[in-house]
Description:
The strands form two sheets. The chain has a five-stranded antiparallel beta sheet with strand order 4-3-2-1-8. About 55% of the residues lie in helices and about 10% in strands. By secondary structure, it is an alpha+beta fold. It has two domains: about 15-40 and about 200-405, Orthogonal Bundle (MetI-like fold), CATH 1.10.3720; about 70-185, no CATH class. The protein is elongated and about 100 Å long. It starts with a helix and ends with a helix. It is built from 17 helices and eight strands. About 30% of the residues are buried.
Amino acid sequence: MFKKKQYAASGSLSKLALRKLSKDRIALVSVVFIVLLAIISILGYLITPDPTPFANQQFLELTTKKPGFKVQMLSVCKNEPEEKTGFFKKMLFGEKSNYQYIPIEKYYFQDDKIFVEEYTGMTPNDGEIKSFSFADVVYALSPGSQNIISSGNSIIFTDVYGKTITEDQATIKQKIINDHILTKKFLLGTDRFGRDVLSQVMIGTRVSLSVGFISVFISLLIGIFLGALAGYFKGWVDNLIMWFINVVWSIPTLLLVIAITFVLGKGFWQVFIAVGLTMWVEVARVVRGQFLSIREKEFVEAGVALGFTNSRIIFRHILPNVLAPVIVISAANFASAILIEAGLSFLGIGVQPPMPSWGTMIKEHYGYIILDSAYLAIVPGIAIMLTVLSFMLTGNGLRDAMDVKIVNK
């Protein structure tokens, strides 16, 4: 019995830390939420209601509609060759729609045409009446042959590929009813341009997590490298690096990010670099302190005595022992990067339209907070708040789990 207990207690610190983390329900919920956000950002346009690039499909007739709004739409095939998008290309960049979507109030059929009243949202609706040939709705017609011949119960026309098609009127009418009269629901409503808010928020998740991940990666590369050099070699190397760290530390983070953004220009990748170049200081200070402590340990002195190179001692013997606090700092930096990106986008110097970003969404709609469409700014604000909170709680959970004193209790 005693041997079994002693064996269990001697498990690796990583297993003990995971066991303790699994008992922290708040941290686990936060991790699950972060994983959910990661899945949404990876799948991207495959799961968004609006799969067009940047989720930028606009319906000016549907501006600022409330969450849960539903409307009928007629999808009319564009008179151009169909563009096929591969799985991964659609997932990353979206897919251009081969159809034109027209919000409608009502429709009716007459001969070989469908007549629709455009949706206006007014009472009474009083929308413009438009007519479309059955063939024009279902098929992409050749621009040079717009004449559609009706022969009895059949329709003869030429499609965009030069193929002459004969279609039965009843059959093509049924296709329109089944496949081209749609009911579109906007779960989170629409913004001032008539875009789907849910799709914008989902693609904005990709922007925020990408900025956080790449910025933290850049900060880790710079911070670990400089902190390791300063802590291991000490002397003039430590003094020089610490002087540089203190200079960067004295500059307000947001001011430094704005200055770097102006130098690099506005855009998606520029935000990554700008945020990453300002977040390495804290990592470097922590790594330096850990190296100063660990380099005095017996196993480091033994490595020096055995003639191991400095790079081997740094990267294979000391660095693995300082990763725990670095991981905790990275979680906090991830949250900070998301906040900084949202702030830059709100100021107009971050991610540029039409690319959706939570900060941009708040900037475009903060004026609606005092109107009856406050959700347009509140929804992305809640997304930022929950994401940042999840990373902070995850960081706290990792800190407690990786604390050797707490783990051994």
